[in-house]
Amino acid sequence: MKSLNDQQWTNLTDEIRVIAQDIFNRVATGRQNMSRKQDGSLVTETDIALQQAISNRLLTLFPSIPVLGEEMSETEQNSILSTGTCWLLDPLDGTSNFSHGIPVYAVSLALLLNGEVVAGMVYDPNRDECFSAQKGKGAYLNKLPLITASETQDSNLKHAMAIIDTKRLTTRLAQAISSGHPYHSQRSFGSVAIDWCWLAAGRVQTYLHGKQKLWDFAAGALIAEEAGCLAHTLDRTSILSAPLTLEARSAVGACPELTSTWPEWIQAHQ
User: Fold this and answer.
1) What is residue 151's predicted lDDT score, i.e. its pLDDT?
2) What residues are paired with 162 via a beta bridge?
3) Largest CB tally within 10 Å, which of 58, 93, 148, 172?
4) Domains of the chain
């Protein structure tokens, strides 16, 4: 299959947005049945409802493309991923936030075609922001071009705002950040998909996360790359490089002006 054309992609992002809006409008955060998966992470009724509704629509529109959803067994996920072509769906990225009434979570969807992520969207229902990108065609926010322009970015690392998740980093790197971080200030929001999109939008300038799963980063990292940002792993390879597997990857992100200085600082303190 060839990648979706521009109109198909626009129509699809519109449909997913409407499906998500409808489900979020009908649920009460923090007041629904929840359970924990084997890894200890939460899953709610809303996770399941979103996965079912979005998967059903995708399979209706594109019956030849299977859907790999977060709320599937690992066996099912590996079987689908082995085909090289599928939808990568995280129906509710930031479930812990959602379940506690913290308004930072999103729906993330990416298209993997012949082993390559070629399209992605992230919908943030709390701010009604839909980030999207197709490989080689730029990144968009609510259908307007999203450009992390050099003239709007500060090239001094010590002035940067950072998103840092320290709990999955090596002890040495976490201690270096704790004792002598090189940036101005840091945050941790609890939604990988939103992290990448806010980097793409220039709301933060540096990013570091020790371990994130394929469905977490696929869409957001593509959006960041298409906005001109760095989207690498700790070993300085593209986070979207093949082969893509279910094994979690580290994440290093930076705005265009800091694509050298931020990774260099990290490398010196690993």
Assistant:
1) 45
2) 186, 206
3) 93
4) 6-146 (3.30.540.10), 150-269 (3.40.190.80)
> Which pLDDT score is estimated for 55?
97
Range 136-171 burial, b when 16+ CB lie within 10 A, else e: eeebbbeeeebbbeeeebeeebeebbbbbbeeebee
Averages of pLDDT over each 10 residues, the chain, 270 residues: 86 98 78 56 84 97 95 93 97 92 96 97 98 97 80 77 93 94 95 98 96 97 96 97 96 96 95
C-beta separation of 70 from 54 below 8 A: no
If you search the block for the tokens 């809303």, which residue do you land on?
A: 46
Paired tokens of 103? 């308004």
